[in-house]
Structures are given as structure tokens and as C-alpha cells.
């Protein structure tokens, strides 16, 4: 592997991207899954509304889904804008992003190391590995593939920035005569774009974009320090004509990581605040620190095992609470032994510390010390960490080839890795089929894991949701109750059970389910909304208003919540507060006919008839087929003494909804010239 292949890096990157798209293409025909996709895409009206000014404001101002990742929201909105609201567009963009990540990873590694063979192998392993299916196939994990795109872009920019091993001001470039017809000032922008300072600033921009897509890569400053050690060797080694230093100095190279560290710290604070408010972070009472520390070495070993034996992959790995002591000790000894071995071999194989500590370090934010959710581990968390293991494999293979050559060694090495890549591609294709819909996803998780109560509960909830949509309410209730019995800490199942009971007319029982969901997740805005609606049915308006307001604390841009709050306030006689609530609803949903109609009612009750008429006309413009709004306009016109126009509106209301009792009664109360019976 001493000779590098002759293909241009750009062409290889394109071919790798095309192969990746080909492997992942079946995703385009797959459905949403009933696991966060409702929050991120299929039922999120901000996303379904596309890229509007109001939705952009929402993206940057919301902590919805217990995350602050505005660029992820914007990318999903752009999908809808370009491809419509179905799942195909979201899947297509995820596949394209994964292909771009693989291609860019190859280019970044070439820029960092100068090695095309090894970089190509790392990028191909990244592209084809089955552990990465979850990050690509799950629409809700757009944040994963998008943040990684910017993360890898940081690596590329850092490679360009680090072409001089001694950090500091850019040395002045000798002035050359400007070409004829071109001023020196015109060449300054070009010189800046080619300078180290430009690539440094570009890296910071990419890092900010990565954090605004998903805060996974807060460890990036430490990843850059690993790259300083190898392959950049910024202090211990340098290229032709560059100054050589004696040893690597952390202090010397810390200064250019400072802005990255500050951005990471800020991202950590924002993430903790948002996830705590959203109820995503489990308290020590839910999972003691001892159990969390036990899970760390076990998870590291399990991730390594799945990297080399990627079978029985599941969307959910339930946390056991406490691992057997023997498992914890053996896992801990394995990790410590590997760390010592890597450090012992660092002189001969300097790539090993970078690869190994890259794997350990990039997993730290999701290793479970800060427990988000109830899983013990997740395939998606390996998306970038496995790059470190792939580096060890690729560069290790190169070292073996260089040190122990034998006849046909080159052909043997190529055949071995080609076979591995083909096998990985086949396994990835098989794993993709698991993600065709929610039912196949959770059935698979139940079948390949043992005693996975979480996966079984998610499956029952998915089946219950499907039955509910088919109108089979009784069977849906049974499945929701089964999910709760298996996994009592599952707020979505409690909420769904409440919805099904409410439809069945059992409002008091529904209220009990919503309240239980809120005990588990106090910031669960949908449960607050459903509970508020149930309180309205029971006539408990002050409590309903309180829950609408709590829903708006979690999701302040919910037009539906503002509209329903306005209706509850209207029934309480708080007309001005109702007007303000409807106006807020229209701010976030400017094409809501219902909100315009409700605002018209509130204004009429305040005696503001002209404003009321204007809003009622807007409601009819948006929804001319609403019998209720035509009736409302008729009554409003009668109040203004405009009887002929009122009769026209009431008559149209009856045409749209025959036997509409209020319209019939209103027409019959008019003088004799008005029709005495509804038109046929």
C-alpha cells in the first residue's frame, strides 16, 4: 500500500457517494415510523408549513422535542417545500446527506493525512456499515447526518488551516506585481480566501452549524487535539522546509481551540436546559449514578462488538438498571487493557491513540452519564465514533503490508477488504428493510433482543395507533394498556390511551390518563393540550386555561393551543384576552380560517363590528365552504342592520349544511320577506 492509486480524489468521492446512494436507495419508498417522526415531520405543522418567516422564527426559538437544533428544523421544512409532506423527500435528503458525509470524510482524511488508500477504506467502511442505518433510515435522525456533514467540514477546514505547524499570525506574503488590468486591492479577497485565517474562521462557522443541527460534537476541540498529535504532528514533525519541534505541547496548541471550547460550553448549557425542561433527562431517582457508571464500560464493549459483528441490531436496547458485577468488571478491564496497549504502541503506531481515543471521546456525550431517555445504548451514537476504529483498521492494515510483505500481499489485502465491504453492504441492505414502517421496526427489535420490554411496549403502542386510525377504538385501547403495563414510564402510551378513551366518551378516565402522562413528562405539550380540551368538555374552564398556558410554555408557537386558549377565555367572558390569544394564533398560522372566525366572534362581543366583519370575510376567503362561518357572517350583518346581505349568508349556510338548526331559527325570526324554510 505504499503506492497511492492514480484516481483523482474528487472522482473517487463522487463514485463513493453514488455507491452509497445505490445501497440506501430502498429507503425512498419507506413510511414514517411511529417513533419521534410525528414530532419531527408527519404531524409537526411547523415543518408541514414549509419555510415561512414564522416557521423560521419558531425553529430558532423553540426547544421542541427536548432539543435546540434550528438547522435540523429548517432542513426538514425545506424538504416539505421541495418534495411535499410525505416521507419520500425526507428519506431522499437523509440518503444524500449520508452519501455526502462519506465523500467529504474521504476528502478530509486525504487533506489531513495525504493517504488516499487508507482514507478511501475508512470512508467506505463509514458509508456501508450497518450500524449507520439507524442514523440514515430514521427521519427524526436528520440531526445526526446533518450535524456530521458540518463536523466533517470542520475537519477539512482544520486540515487546510494547519498547513503551517506553528500557530500564530499569518506571515506576510511577498508582494508581486499585480496583473495588468487588475488592481492590488482586487486581489486582497482572493489572498484572504487562501489564507490560514480564512480556513480557521470557516471551521468555526461549520462548528456552529454542527451544534445547531445536533449538540453531539461538543467534544470536537479534543478531537482536534488528537489530530494535532496525529496525523498533523503539528509540534513533533513537519513537512519540507518547516520548523521541527521536540515534542507535542498541549499548552502551545490550546489557544486555537479556545473559541471551539467556548462554543461547546455554551451548547452544553443550552442543551441541558432544553432537555431538562422537556423532561428528556432522567434524574438520579430514575437511574442512580452507580447504574450509569456501570453502563459505561459495558456499552463501550458492546459498541466494539457490534462494530466487528453487526448482527441483531435494534432500534431500542433497554437499560437493565444494574449490570451483573462480573460483566462490569470484565468490560472495564477490557477497556483499560486496550488503552494501555494503545499507549504502549504509540511510538510505532501513532495513529492508534488518535483512533482509539477518538472512539472513546466522541461517545462521551451519549455514553449515559447524563441519561437521556431509557436506552442503555443506541446504534446511531456510533455514526462518528466508529471513524476512530476504522482509522486504526485502515492504517493498521497499511503498516502490516509495509512491514510483512509476502507474495500476493497486495492482492490479498484488496480481496480481503473488498469482501468485507461487500458483506457490510449486504448486511446494510437487510437492515434497511427493518425500517420500512413502525411495526416492522419494533417487531424486529423484539425478535433480536431479550426481555426488551421497551421495544414490546413501543410495538403495542404502534399497533394501537394503527387500530385507532382504522376506527377500532376498543382494540386500540387494549394495545395502549398493554404498552403501559410493559413500560409504565411511557408517557406517549398514557396520552394515546387518554385520546382513545375520550373518543369513546369516557372523558373522566381520559383525564386520568393525561394526568399520568404529565406526571412522567411535565413538559409534554400534547398531553397538556388534550387535558385542557377534556377539561373544556367537563366545563372546568379555569383548569383548561391553566393547561393551555402550560402547553404554550413548552410550545409557545402552537397556533392550535393559542386558538383553543382563546375559545376557553371567550367562554369565561375574558373577551380582550381571547382576542389577544386569537391574534397570537394567527401570528403563527396566518392562514387559519378557524382562528379568523374565532377572532371575529370575540371582536363582535366587544362591539367592534367592523373589525369583526373584516376577520369573518378573511375566514370565508380561506374556507368558503364553512356553513358555520356563513352563519356567523349572517348574524354579524343583522347586527349592523344589513338584512338582505344577512339573508344571503344564512341561506348559503343552509345550502352547505341543510337542516342547520341555528340558521333555520335565525331565518324564521326575520320579517315575512325572508324565506320561512331552508332552500331545497
Description:
- The protein is mostly helical and 680 residues long.
- The protein folds into two domains: 9-168 and 212-433, no CATH class; 440-668, Serine Threonine Protein Phosphatase 5, Tetratricopeptide repeat, CATH 1.25.40.10.
- Helices cover 66% and strands 1% of the residues.
- The protein contains 32 helices and two strands.
- The chain has helices at residues 9-24, 37-42, 45-48, 53-61, 70-83, 87-113, 116-128, 133-137, 142-161, 184-193, 196-211, 220-229, 258-277, 289-308, 325-344, 351-362, 386-403, 409-433, 438-448, 453-469, 473-486, 491-503, 507-520, 525-537, 541-554, 559-571, 575-588, 593-605, 609-622, 627-639, 643-656, 661-668; strands at 317-318, 375-377.
- The protein has a two-stranded antiparallel sheet.
- The N and C termini lie far apart (87 Å).
- Residues 164-177, 237-248 and 674-680 have low confidence and may be disordered.
Amino acid at each position: 500500500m505504499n503506492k497511492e492509486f492514480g484516481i483523482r480524489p474528487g472522482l473517487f468521492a463522487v463514485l463513493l457517494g453514488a455507491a452509497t446512494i445505490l445501497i440506501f436507495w430502498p429507503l425512498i419508498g419507506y413510511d414514517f415510523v411511529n417513533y419521534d417522526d410525528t414530532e419531527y415531520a408527519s404531524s409537526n405543522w411547523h415543518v408541514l408549513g414549509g419555510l415561512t418567516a414564522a416557521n423560521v422564527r419558531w425553529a430558532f426559538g423553540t426547544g421542541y422535542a427536548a432539543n435546540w437544533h434550528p438547522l435540523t428544523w429548517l432542513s426538514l421544512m425545506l424538504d416539505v417545500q421541495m418534495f411535499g409532506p410525505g416521507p419520500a423527500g425526507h428519506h431522499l435528503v437523509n440518503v444524500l446527506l449520508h452519501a455526502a458525509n462519506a465523500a467529504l470524510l474521504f476528502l478530509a482524511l486525504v487533506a489531513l493525512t495525504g493517504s488516499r488508500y487508507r482514507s478511501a477504506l475508512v470512508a467506505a467502511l463509514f458509508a456501508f456499515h450497518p450500524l449507520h442505518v439507524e442514523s440514515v433510515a430514521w427521519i427524526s435522525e436528520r440531526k445526526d447526518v446533518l450535524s456530521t456533514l458540518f463536523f466533517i467540514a470542520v475537519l477539512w477546514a482544520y486540515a487546510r488551516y494547519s498547513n503551517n505547524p506553528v500557530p500564530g499570525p499569518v506571515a506576510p506574503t511577498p508582494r508581486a506585481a499585480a496583473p495588468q488590468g487588475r488592481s492590488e486591492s482586487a486581489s486582497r479577497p482572493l489572498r484572504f480566501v487562501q489564507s490560514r485565517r480564512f480556513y480557521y474562521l470557516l471551521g468555526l462557522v461549520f462548528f456552529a452549524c454542527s451544534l445547531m443541527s445536533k449538540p453531539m460534537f461538543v467534544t470536537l476541540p479534543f478531537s482536534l487535539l488528537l489530530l494535532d498529535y496525529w496525523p498533523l504532528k503539528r509540534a513533533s514533525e513537519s513537512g519540507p522546509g518547516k520548523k521541527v519541534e521536540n515534542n507535542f505541547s498541549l499548552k502551545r496548541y490550546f489557544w486555537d481551540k479556545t473559541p471551539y471550547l467556548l462554543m461547546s460550553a455554551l451548547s452544553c448549557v443550552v442543551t441541558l436546559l432544553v432537555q431538562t425542561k422537556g423532561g428528556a433527562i432522567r434524574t438520579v431517582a430514575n437511574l442512580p449514578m452507580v447504574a450509569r457508571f456501570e453502563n459505561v464500560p459495558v456499552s463501550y464493549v458492546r459498541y466494539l462488538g457490534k462494530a466487528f459483528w453487526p448482527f441483531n441490531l435494534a432500534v431500542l436496547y433497554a437499560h437493565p438498571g444494574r449490570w451483573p458485577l462480573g460483566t462490569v468488571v470484565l468490560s472495564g478491564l477490557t477497556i483499560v487493557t486496550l488503552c494501555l496497549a494503545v499507549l504502549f504502541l504509540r511510538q510505532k503506531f501513532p495513529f492508534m491513540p488518535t483512533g482509539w481515543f477518538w472512539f472513546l471521546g466522541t461517545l462521551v456525550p451519549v455514553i449515559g452519564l447524563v441519561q437521556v431517555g431509557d436506552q442503555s445504548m443506541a446504534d446511531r451514537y456510533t455514526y462518528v465514533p466508529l471513524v476512530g476504529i476504522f482509522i486504526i483498521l485502515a492504517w493498521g492494515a497499511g503498516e502490516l503490508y509495509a512491514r510483512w510483505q509476502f507474495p500476493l500481499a497486495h492482492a490479498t489485502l484488496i480481496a480481503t477488504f473488498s469482501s468485507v465491504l461487500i458483506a457490510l453492504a449486504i448486511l446494510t441492505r437487510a437492515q434497511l428493510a427493518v425500517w420500512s414502517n413502525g411495526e416492522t421496526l419494533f417487531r424486529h427489535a423484539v425478535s433480536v433482543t431479550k426481555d426488551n420490554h421497551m421495544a414490546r411496549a413501543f410495538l403495542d403502542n404502534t399497533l394501537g395507533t394503527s387500530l385507532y386510525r382504522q376506527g377500532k377504538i376498543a382494540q386500540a385501547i387494549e394495545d395502549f394498556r398493554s404498552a403501559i403495563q410493559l413500560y409504565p414510564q411511557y408517557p406517549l402510551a398514557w396520552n394515546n390511551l387518554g385520546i382513545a378513551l375520550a373518543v369513546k366518551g369516557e372523558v373522566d378516565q381520559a383525564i386520568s390518563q393525561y394526568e399520568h402522562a404529565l406526571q412522567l413528562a411535565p413538559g409534554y405539550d400534547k398531553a397538556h393540550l388534550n387535558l385542557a380540551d377534556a377539561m373544556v368538555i367537563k366545563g372546568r374552564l379555569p383548569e383548561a386555561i391553566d393547561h393551555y398556558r402550560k402547553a404554550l410554555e413548552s410550545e409557545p408557537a402552537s397556533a392550535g393551543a393559542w386558538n383553543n386558549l382563546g375559545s376557553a377565555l371567550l367562554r369565561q367572558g375574558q373577551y380582550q384576552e381571547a382576542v389577544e390569544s386569537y391574534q397570537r394564533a394567527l401570528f403563527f398560522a396566518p392562514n387559519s380560517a378557524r382562528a379568523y372566525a374565532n377572532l371575529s366572534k370575540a371582536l363582535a362581543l366587544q362591539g367592534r363590528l367592523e373589525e369583526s366583519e373584516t376577520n369573518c370575510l378573511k375566514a370565508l376567503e380561506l374556507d368558503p365552504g364553512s356553513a358555520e362561518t356563513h352563519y356567523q357572517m349572517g348574524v354579524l350583518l343583522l347586527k349592523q342592520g344589513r338584512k338582505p346581505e344577512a339573508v344571503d349568508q344564512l341561506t348559503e349556510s343552509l345550502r352547505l349544511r341543510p337542516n342547520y338548526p341555528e340558521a333555520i331559527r335565525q331565518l324564521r325570526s326575520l320579517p315575512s320577506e325572508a324565506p320561512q324554510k331552508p332552500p331545497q
